[in-house]
Fold this protein.
Amino acid sequence: MPDFRHTNLTANRLLIVRHACMPHFLAVMIVFLMLPGHTAATQDITWVTVEAAAPIVDDNVEQAREAAIEIAEWKAIEEAVVVNISMETLLVNLKLSGSMIGAIPYAKIVESEIIEENDGGQSGGQNDSSPMYRIKMKVGVVEKFESHDPSFQIEAALNRTNFNNGQEMEISLKTTKDCFYCIFILLEDQKVLKLIPNQYRTNNFLESNKAYTIPDAGDRQKGIVLKVYTPPDKTIAKEAVYVLALQQPFDFENADIQEGVFGIYNGQTAFIEALIRQIVGIPLEDRAEHLIQYQISKAAAGGAG
């Protein structure tokens, strides 16, 4: 995986260097492509029936009701859209289309009906008697693929597509519009890590028509580089980097996606469905995306680069 490292062992960088020595992992190539049966036109309404509950805090029944409705609506989107976008399906569709746009649709709730609701139910747990607002809803969801803005594009490239262990990776970015971006690493066990932004690089704004490189000169002055390694038990690793850009600030903190910097990975990060849940609620005209595939060989690097 890509691994941000410091190149020298100064006293104030020991913590980061220690992190850099932790195990690495293998990630498989994954591509978000148009699913079978989808066309450019808005899809028919998918109706799902869902149930949800939210705690009633300080006797605020209305707030609990609104929270329960929101939870139910997200459950409906997951059931109608997210559940159909599996890793296997994405890989199969790699052969059917070369386009990244529209792989993850914009899911929108167009109709909803409350079937049952109750503001006096209990949580049901032996040690938890907090009152819960429970709701059962019928929700209509549509998938939209036709709204992509062709003038909003993000270009992404690597300094190479085949690496040896320990070689440095550089990611080049350029966008046609001012935007905010995120870089994810996609793993073979259907999990996802966030590479940027992270605790050491929080600025994720890109100015239009300006070339960016990661790591940049400022990173290198701090001794930060981006290196790639195979897992100890693998001779070849195939990985994928997914770059997502949006025209408004966005936050994936609530998706439980672990940072992928310094080789730290304990297996507790979120599954790829968590990322898809975040993306489907964003209109296509506000998104641009790019997927980069590369391979790492266990052969020792002849030098950085």
